[in-house]
Amino acid sequence: MKIRALKLSSDIDHVLDRVLEVNDSNQINNLVMFNLIGNINSRITNLKDLTKLNKLYLNDNEILKIVNICNFILLKELDLQSNQIQNTENLNNVDNLELLNILYNQISKLKDLFESTNLKKLDLVINCIEKIGGCKNFIKIE
Is the keyword Repeat assigned to this protein (predicted)? Predict the structure, then answer.
């Protein structure tokens, strides 16, 4: 039996590294939902093999930069609320993304985000946004 949803939240130090070490048998490669809320991770790496994800919850961590998201071609929901993210780079190749929550971060410029044409919901509240680029591709935003 393969795991399809996994919730690992509430201050488990280095929880992601431990889970991925156990992944030798590819038990979590079929995950469609991964919840890592509140684990005090400053960087999220080693997720590249989880290509079937469609929901990823990384809020309430200490993430500084968005990395390795482009492998998630099926990703529809991404929650990065309450982190330390300063820019939106590396989000431009997530074509199926419909919901993006990046409120309570330190974003000042929106870069590369506006290439996503399927985005329906975007939450940017409580950031330090100084500059917003073109929004012409946001035809589905609600």
Answer: yes
